[in-house]
Design a protein that fits this description.
With 370 residues, the chain is an alpha/beta fold. 40% of the residues lie in helices and 20% in strands. The chain has 13 helices and 14 strands. The strands form three sheets. Strands 2-1-3-12-11-4-5-10-8-9 form a ten-stranded mixed sheet, sandwiched between helices. A two-stranded antiparallel sheet has the order 6-7. Strands 13-14 form a two-stranded parallel sheet. Strand 1, helix 1 and strand 2 form a beta-alpha-beta unit. Helix 1 packs parallel to helix 13 and helix 12 crosses helix 13. The structure holds 3-isopropylmalic acid and magnesium ion. 3-isopropylmalic acid (IPM) binds next to helix 5. The site of magnesium ion (MG) has 2 residues, from helix 10.
């Protein structure tokens, strides 16, 4: 029975398990969402499609038009990971635009997912797994990296050619003001819901694209008088992340800087296996995936950490479906499991109980309550 004011809805989710540990971790995230569905009265309907290496094996390309279309028509997308060992000649002895990772870049571009949100939060329980000294960790940290995802070097014109007998490779880094403005607006919007600080990261002492970045970000900042804007050079930011991570609230940055800094930020949370992410377009549509890769070396062994994917599902409920209570329930269940001392191998420390991927999913699902 649906009571007054209560929502009971169907959501169509495209799942892309992908390669390596992808299928295992997506399975656990769906398990947790299904429990959310039972407890809160929603129905999550999944349509599974191939992308990455498995799509190359099946169709000869890392992303087909049909897969893109299925994703586009759904309410949101949940992705595991794509790619394999570069030694896998079947997937890597081909043109760069036919490799597994090209599928990921193509779906981001194809769905216009320009805003990549990567939260990096240190759970107190995982302080032992954090490689930083206690005095640097202090009271911990809680930041969000807002990475521009469909522009810059990763999408610029590139080629390799011989110039006067010398092999020469060219990559181009382009940003226009509109691309900068729309990601800056997202960053300031998120900052308004947090501690109201944006640190915009660039290389304005060298790059023209960074100087335009700075100018446009300053214009956007005028619409958000409550938010403090600071500029930081990317090399300094890399240093500050391991020197004083507590100073960051929202980091706003371009595609490649965000790629690099988000791996660094994930490592100081204890394990890259904890970091979720959302990639969104102008509306509420998003693709949700862990920040980590496909870890082919541990695939199929039931030892991967599914938490980043489960937390990505929580982001989906919050950002795409406005289901805040449900998202909170997932985050609380993750917190509870950690407090109770359950750990996958990557976050294990002495005195804890080591569990596998599927048991971790069970434990979190069991703790979902209203
Ligand atoms: C990431 C990954 C991808 C990226 C790769 C696999 C293309 O490193 O999501 O951070 O660089 O965006
Ligand atoms: Mg990366």
């Amino acid at each position: 029975m649906i009571r007054e004011g209560e929502r009971k809805m169907n959501y169509n989710i495209t799942t892309i398990p992908g390669d390596g540990i992808g299928p295992e971790i997506v399975r656990e995230a769906c398990k947790v969402m299904d429990k959310v569905g039972v407890v809160f009265g929603h129905h999550f309907q999944y349509t599974e499609v191939l992308m990455g290496g498995c799509s190359i094996d099946a169709y000869g390309v890392p992303l087909t038009e049909e897969t893109l279309e299925t994703a586009r028509k759904s309410d949101s997308v949940l992705l595991g990971a794509v790619g394999g060992n570069v030694g896998n000649s079947r997937w890597y002895d081909v043109a760069p635009n036919l490799r597994p990772e090209a599928g990921l870049l193509a779906i981001r571009k194809g769905l216009n997912l320009f805003a990549n949100i990567r939260p990096a939060y240190l759970y107190k329980e995982l302080a032992e797994a954090c490689p930083l000294k206690k005095e640097i960790i202090g009271d911990g940290f809680d930041m969000v990296i807002m990475r521009e995802l469909t522009g810059g070097l990763y999408f610029g014109e590139r080629h390799t050619e011989e110039v006067d007998g010398v092999m020469t490779a060219v990559d181009t880094l382009t940003y226009n003001e509109n691309e900068i403005r729309r990601i800056a607006v997202k960053a300031f919007d998120i900052a308004m819901k947090r501690r109201k600080s944006v640190i915009s990261v660039d290389k304005a002492n060298v790059l023209d694209s960074s100087r335009l970045w700075r100018k446009v970000v300053e214009e956007v900042a005028k619409d958000y008088p409550e938010v403090t804007l600071t500029h930081m050079l990317v090399d300094n930011c890399a240093m500050q992340l391991v020197m004083n991570p507590g100073q960051f609230d929202v980091i706003l940055t371009e595609n490649m800087f965000g790629d690099i800094l988000s791996d660094e930020a994930s490592m100081i949370t204890g394990s890259i296996g904890m970091l979720s992410s959302a990639s969104m377009n102008e509306s509420k549509f998003g693709l949700y995936e862990p920040s980590h890769g496909s870890a082919p070396d541990i695939a199929g062994k039931d030892i991967a950490n599914p938490i980043a994917t489960i937390l990505s599902a929580a982001m989906m409920l919050r950002y795409s479906f406005d289901l805040d209570a449900e998202a909170n329930a997932i985050e609380a269940a993750v917190q509870q499991v950690l407090t109770e001392g359950y750990r996958t191998g990557d976050i294990y420390s002495e005195g804890c109980e080591k569990v596998g991927c599927s048991r971790m999913g069970d434990l979190i699902a069991e703790r979902i309550t209203k």
